[in-house]
Write a structure and sequence with these properties.
Elements (H helix, E strand, L loop, with lengths): L4 E7 L15 E5 L7 E5 L2 H11 L9 H11 L2 E12 L2 E10 L2 E10 L1 H11 L3 E3 L1 H7 L1 E8 L6 H11 L7 H17 L3 H6 L4 H12 L7
Parallel strand pairs: 4-7
Antiparallel strand pairs: 1-8, 2-3, 4-5, 5-6
Helix pairs in contact: 1-3, 2-3, 6-8
Protein name: BFN domain-containing protein
Pfam families: BFN_dom
InterPro entries: BFN_sf, Bi_nuclease_dom
Length: 222
Amino acid sequence: MRDGRHLRCIQNNPQAGNLPDYAPHPAIVLKMEDGTGLLLPIIVLEMPSVLLMAAMSNVQIPRPTMYQVVKDMIEKMGYSVKLVRVTKRVHEAYFAQLYLTKVGDETECVSFDLRPSDAINIAVRCKVPIQVNKYLAYSDGMRVMESGKLSVQSTASDVLPHAELDQPSGQPCLDSEEFKIVGDLNEAISQERYKDAGTLPVSFSDIALLFNIGLSHLSFVQ
């Protein structure tokens, strides 16, 4: 979790099958408020996740976001957002609906299909309820088994590859030698000791790295 907590969860419905094993990716996690405490994780793109966190933290963004523009357009057309609802899952994709009502006549209602990430962003900005189809929540929901801070302790099998990389092998480290050469070369050039710079063994990768270092200090004047 973004607050540093580590949640260990199991599926609420064992007959639902295994959920897809995704690579690390942003997710919006909805918590059910019906007393079950079920969590529904929805994999989203990075931008909707960032904008949602900004809205929840009341971070002011200089330029209007897509969600702010949609909110303003709805109000200009004489409608208001009533609620959003996560309705179903087709294969690995969740679907949501945005419900609008006419200002002054709540019997006139329209709805639009949206991605859940977009619908939730709009709901947070408009301060309206977020609902989830109960069958979907019970089928795809997760139950928290354990909660706590991320632990830095690991088993031997977890740290073995990193330990092998970090421990000395008794052999010369080519990477450290290469970085030392680049450092010496950069220092010689900065002190205008060009003869010394010319005698240093330099590979193409050293030149490329030095070129990148030098570019960061360049400025152009007319």
